[in-house]
């Protein structure tokens, strides 16, 4: 997590993103999260956007509903989600 929807990675963080193979963006499913997603995608054009499978607003909501984050993330990385 990088903080609130208004937070974007600074120059220091961009170095770390440069060396990783997969970047998955999962922001809250609300107006602020969707607006922030557009800004993140401009900053990190090779990043892929992802959504939780059951319409959960955020990761906490997904976990509360019994969602398995590890399985979900693996499916996203495989391209199955």
Overall description:
With 81 residues, this protein is mainly α. Helix content is 46%, strand content 5%. The protein is built from four helices and two strands, in the order αβαβαα. The protein has helices spanning 11-18, 31-43, 59-64, 69-78; strands at 24-25, 48-49. It has a two-stranded parallel sheet with strand order 1-2. β1, α2 and β2 (48-49) form a beta-alpha-beta unit. It is globular and about 35 Å long. The two termini are 20 Å apart.
What keywords describe this structure?
single chain, mainly alpha, two-stranded parallel sheet, 5% strand
What is the strand arrangement across the widest sheet? 1-2
Shape: globular
Pairing-aware structural class of the strands and helices?
mainly alpha
By DSSP (H or I, 4+ residues per run), the number of helices equals 4
| Residues in β-strands, percent | under 5%
Number of strands: 2
Low-confidence segments, given as residue ranges, are: none
The biggest beta sheet reads: 2 strands, parallel
Q: What is the N-to-C succession of helices and strands?
A: HEHEHH
N- to C-terminal separation? 20 Å
What is the averaged pLDDT score?
A: 86
Supply Rg: 13 Å
Helix content: 40-55%
């Amino acid at each position: 997590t990088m903080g609130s929807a208004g937070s974007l990675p600074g120059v220091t963080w961009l170095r770390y993103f440069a060396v990783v193979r997969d970047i998955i963006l999962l922001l809250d499913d609300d107006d602020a999260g969707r607006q922030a997603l557009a800004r993140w995608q401009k900053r990190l054009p090779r990043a892929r956007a992802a959504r939780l499978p059951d319409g959960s607003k955020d990761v906490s909501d997904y976990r509360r509903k019994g969602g398995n984050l590890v399985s979900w993330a693996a499916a996203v990385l495989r391209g199955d989600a």
